[in-house]
Write a structure and sequence with these properties.
The structure holds two protein chains of two kinds.
Chain A lengths: L14 E3 L2 E2 L2 E2 L2 E2 H21 L8 H21 L7 H17 L12 H23 L14 H16 L1 H29 L5 H38 L2
Antiparallel strand pairs in A: 1-4, 2-3
Helix pairs in contact in A: 1-2, 1-3, 2-3, 2-7, 3-7, 4-6, 4-7, 6-7
Chain B lengths: L2 H12 L3 H21 L4 H31 L2
Helix pairs in contact in B: 1-3, 2-3
The chains are: A mainly alpha, B mainly alpha.
Chain lengths: 243, 75
């Protein structure tokens, strides 16, 4: 394998299986392969973890149960019992982002959430879904969300545009937060690895820094998945309960 | 000044935003340590907020880093 010294080369999407539908390029890329692997792994975890479920769980069942309970607890405490119908969505979101972040840390693999289009698709889905839920639940009264209670009319003129702007910036901050964390982490790992490749005996120092950075990246991977999921729950709470 | 040099200078300037990230994260964990020192029993309730605050503060700094990469590789 060639040694790529450019730290951003790890994010290039390459075609594994070129396919075309008319004019549209639907090649099977390394990104698509990683996403397929992620979905298979999550499905295998849940299906095999709950097969022959015993009262005292084994290891796999424990992991499946803990992840389920973690997300169910998060949805119920942040959205309330009315949010539980949306639990499958939040669970899928959390597990996909978690697995994608963690599997990206394996050397020579591909970080699916390191592509802005992937994180933006996820964030836009959450944003549009939550807005539609808000309008379905409250009708046009949902627009009162942008008008806080007990504010004098003079301040409303400047406050409502700010509220609207901060509402519409949500999909962008949600997606860029996840994307920038993944990009920055992997780029830093790549930069120090590049140093290690070119300075001979002193490579021990960049490698030691890389070990510490990898530990930090493990924390950031799980934390960013948690933050994405909990912010989705909070936006859902805003839509369902309107403050 | 040619575009390539201007890009490098722009990317370097954009990384000044990470100062805010450092101060913010320090703030969050200082509050966490302070509150746990006063009331160790609150750890289960306070710690999730600490990690959420850390992630959000870090994210704001990384927005600046994203702009730096945008300047370097997109424009």
């Amino acid at each position: 394998m060639t040694i790529e010294l450019h730290p951003l080369a790890q994010f290039t999407v390459e075609r594994i299986l070129p396919l075309r539908v008319g004019q549209i390029d639907v090649s099977f890329t390394n990104a698509a392969l990683m996403m397929a692997i992620i979905v298979c792994l999550i499905t295998a975890l849940i299906v095999f973890g709950t097969r022959r479920a015993s009262l005292v769980p084994g290891r796999l069942q424990s992991v499946a149960e803990i992840s389920y309970e973690f997300v169910a607890d998060m949805v119920e405490s942040n959205v309330g019992p009315e949010g539980l119908p949306y639990f499958p969505f939040v669970f899928s979101l959390f597990m996909f982002i978690l697995f994608s972040n963690l599997l990206g840390l394996i050397p020579y693999s591909f970080t699916v959430t390191g592509q802005i289009i992937v994180t933006f698709a996820l964030a836009l889905t959450v944003f549009i879904g939550v807005t539609i839920i808000g309008f379905i639940k409250h009708g046009l009264h949902f627009l009162r969300f942008f008008v806080p209670e007990g504010v004098p009319i003079v301040l409303l003129v400047i406050l409502v545009p700010i509220e609207v702007l901060s509402y519409f910036i949500r999909p962008f901050t949600l997606s860029i937060r996840l994307f920038a964390n993944m990009l920055a982490g992997h780029t830093m790992l790549g930069i120090f690895a590049g140093f290690a490749a070119i300075i001979g005996i002193f490579a021990i120092f960049p490698i030691a820094i890389d070990v510490v950075l990898l530990a930090l990246e493990l924390l950031v991977a799980t934390l960013q998945a948690y933050v994405f999921a909990i912010l989705s729950c909070l936006y859902l709470n805003d839509a369902i309960h309107m403050h | 000044m040619d575009v390539a040099s201007a890009k490098l200078i722009g990317a370097g300037l954009a990384c000044i935003a990470l100062v805010g990230a450092g101060i913010g994260i320090g703030n969050v964990f200082a509050s966490l340590i302070n509150s746990l020192a006063r009331n160790p029993a609150a750890q289960g309730q306070v710690q999730p907020f600490a990690f959420l605050g850390f992630a959000l503060a870090e994210a704001t700094g990384l927005f600046g880093l994203a702009i730096a990469f945008l300047i370097l590789f997109v424009f």
